[in-house]
Amino acid sequence: MDNDGLGPGPRPDGGAVRPPEAGPPEPLPYEGVWRFTAPAVDASVPQARHAVRDLLLRQGVPVAEDLAHGLLVIVSELVTNAVRHAALLSPMLAVEVAVGAEWVRVSVEDNHPYRPTALEADHGRTGGRGLLLVREIAREAGGACDVEHTASGGKVIWAALPLKPAGLP
Hints:
It is a single chain. By secondary structure, this protein is an alpha+beta fold. It has helices at 44-59, 65-86, 130-141; strands spanning 32-39, 92-99, 103-110, 144-149, 155-162. A 5-stranded antiparallel sheet has the order 1-2-3-5-4, covered by helices on one side. Strand 4 (144-149) and strand 5 (155-162) form a beta hairpin. Helix 2 packs antiparallel against helix 3 (130-141).
């Protein structure tokens, strides 16, 4: 991993950065990056959620139960958005889980060029709040989320959450 074993991407405030002369630390047993693809169909939503849950358990990632629950809601929302809004131009999607020493990041990539925004949905509607929910879960956990364009013209939407709850040492 980049960044002296801490991995790329956002880290919780106060995240330790090792001086270069200290040398890279050994990666923790649960650190790594896993990526899988799935068709942009409804059945992929629970499959992605279960795959991420099983990965966290199998790797022994030290994630609190409430943080894991939030992370799985994020996966469900991001995959649902890709299925509902990108499937026509992107029949396949990719889910990536990256775990560093201090954070976990999930992302969903599709080949649709439209970059979504978090909208306040009409209270009479039953949908339309997915990205807003993702951003709020990430913010409450002390993490971050964003949407980026890919080199192929699609997009990747990611959320990174600290493994330790915000405010704890």
